[in-house]
Design goal:
- It contains 8 helices and 4 strands.
- With about 230 residues, the chain is an alpha+beta fold.
- A 4-stranded mixed sheet has the order 1-2-4-3.
- Helix 4 packs across helix 7 and helix 6 runs parallel beside helix 8.
- The termini are far apart.
Length: about 230
């Protein structure tokens, strides 16, 4: 029982962290967001809602400066104020912003948002257990190895989610008559918008796939659909 106790404590810790993280995230988003109401985006939103057989798609503005979109564990979709300001400035088109919303809808529909929260808590528990186990055999390097392994696992899971959400968005945008083009054009300008240096880092360390690889995957999907359509 004594040997199992650390694992049980780690599991209990993971459950407690999941509940706390979900509560903290919801509280933060509630305090710093407002509904997005923009006539210039309504046509795009209505077309996607019709494609999904929904009365409307609700989107909120999250009042932070970084350019990003996110899907909350409770299913809400958010565009950051920084991203919306780029749209208002003409740097991002309505179709491109719609592709971000479609991508985040993919995370919700595929269960990624909730799973990421669970994964985050589980990874903390796994990190604790691995550190304890490896620490017995590798006293000084055990904690470092545990951190590295869980970080690599988290990055791989996250990259897989991004590809799946990209494919969902591509299908939705195609069905809505918007097409895959805005997804690709946004990716081509995304690093400039976010001032990202992701291109200089090894792909296996990133939580998102490389932009070029995401574009290639979308072009492959588009070509396959075009070939299947008589």
């Amino acid at each position: 029982m004594i040997r199992v106790l650390p694992i049980l404590l780690a599991v209990a810790y993971a459950l407690a962290m999941y509940r706390f993280s979900a509560w903290r995230t919801a509280r933060e988003l509630d305090a710093r967001s407002t509904p997005l109401v923009d006539p210039a985006l309504k046509d795009m939103s209505d077309r996607m809602a019709k494609a999904l057989d929904l009365p409307r798609i609700k989107v909120h503005i999250y009042e932070i400066d970084p350019v990003n979109g996110l899907a909350a564990p409770d299913g809400r979709i958010f565009i950051t104020r920084g991203f919306y300001n780029r749209f208002r400035a003409g740097e991002v088109t309505a179709e491109e912003l719609a592709s971000v919303i479609a991508h985040e809808l993919g995370h919700v529909a595929l269960g990624h948002s909730r799973r990421r929260m669970i994964d985050f808590s589980g990874q903390n528990a796994m990190r604790t257990v691995l550190a304890m186990v490896l620490g017995r055999f590798i006293p000084f390097a055990g904690v470092w190895i545990a951190n590295m392994l869980t970080t690599l696992l988290a990055a791989r899971l996250s990259r897989g989610d991004e590809y799946e959400a990209d494919a969902y968005a591509a299908a939705l945008l195609t069905k809505a008559g918007i097409g895959v083009g805005p997804q690709i054009s946004l990716f081509e300008k995304l690093e400039g918008l976010t001032q990202s240096n992701h291109g200089t880092a090894p792909a296996w360390l990133l939580s998102h796939p490389k932009t070029a690889e995401r574009i290639a995957a979308l072009r492959k999907l588009e070509a396959r659909w075009d070939k299947a359509d008589p």
